[in-house]
Specification:
alpha/beta, Ribosomal Protein L15, Chain: K, domain 2, two-stranded parallel sheet, rod-shaped
């Protein structure tokens, strides 16, 4: 006896054919009645309908009115009058050393000099913004 001469004791039983769709029987793998069981069923995904109802996010949103530029810290001339003598050079580093401005997030912030009263001293401003009134006073 050789391997190719061996035969099975029992033959394979064929599955009972029931309903439409062939070999799967009863519901033919469709599960339930109704829309799900019909041919060509097309159900919209529920999540899609939920997503479609949500508003689209466009533009700058809730931060629309906020400036994207860093704002300068206002510094009054009267504060400079108290802390500096006439002819001193004023820049961001000096203001930081005197404690007039503080670091924000590890960086020296921008500063702008604003006129609140007239002073007799003249200062030298280096790389610092000044208002028009301060420019007129320093001439």
């Amino acid at each position: 006896m050789q391997f190719h001469n061996l035969k099975k004791n029992r033959t394979n039983r064929k599955a009972k054919k029931i309903g439409r769709g062939g070999k799967r029987g009863k519901t033919s793998g469709r599960g339930t009645k109704g829309q799900n069981a019909r041919a060509g069923r097309k159900k919209r995904p529920e999540m899609r309908d939920i997503i479609k109802k949500l508003p689209k996010l466009r533009g700058r949103g809730k931060n629309f009115l906020k400036s994207r530029l860093e704002k300068a810290m206002p510094i009054k001339l009267s504060i400079l009058d108290k802390n500096f003598s006439a002819g001193d050079k004023i820049n961001h580093q000096v203001l930081l050393e005197k404690g007039i401005i503080n670091k924000k997030n590890g960086r020296i912030p921008k500063a702008k000099i604003l006129a609140d009263k007239e002073i007799k001293k003249n200062f030298i401003f280096e790389n610092i913004e000044t208002s028009k009134k301060v420019k007129n006073l320093s001439k």
